[in-house]
Sequence to fold (219 residues):
Amino acid sequence: MSKLYKYKIVRVFNSYAKRIPEQLDIWHDKKLVGANLGEYIPSEHRGDMGATGSQSTPYDALRKMIGADAFSKDDVFADIGCGKGRVLAYMAAEYGFEGKIRGVELNEKVADMASDWAKQFDNVEIIAGDAFKQDLSDITVMYLGRPFETEFFKKFVDKFESEIHHPVTVYYWVDQQSGSYLKGRKGWTRERRIKIYYGKCLPLVTVPQGFSKWTYNPE
Fold:
């Protein structure tokens, strides 16, 4: 698959092919929460804080990653680096998550975009701030859409482990850069790992993204 990507014509064709599922996702954004959550916004803090840009996870990927799993009303779901909040919108409006839903976003302007639509849900909270300065101790389910570059990801894992004293389910989207850091690490168990293509449009030329589901148990 990736070998085909060396040809310019394939890259161009793939770029146009992706626009179909991207537009369908934006349509679904508006249907669920009345806002476009699909625009990519570059990071202002990649160099100094290792923060990646705001790129929304496709709904098809979210359904494959989370859709079949069960949660309780006592769970606390947190998306670290939530961007405009598509994952939160999915959990609140499509999945119907009954517990607390929290998004943490470093870029204040992007966090404001998420806050605008989130006001319609009593169980959704958007925090504009540095994830390294947040209390993580009550989280039971965590979503990571590759919010950090590798070195900062490692530092965040250290912080997470120092504050968490109960089992946590962790979803890691686009895990191929630093997901291997968790493999073999004490307390971490990989439940599954799969590759997901962007939508269902022309997958033969679409580069897949890695997804893994982990359980962290400090005991």
Q: What stands out?
A: The chain is about 35% helix and 20% strand. The radius of gyration is 17 Å. Residues 201-205 have pLDDT under 50 and may be disordered. The helical segments are 8-33, 46-49, 59-66, 86-95, 108-118, 150-163.
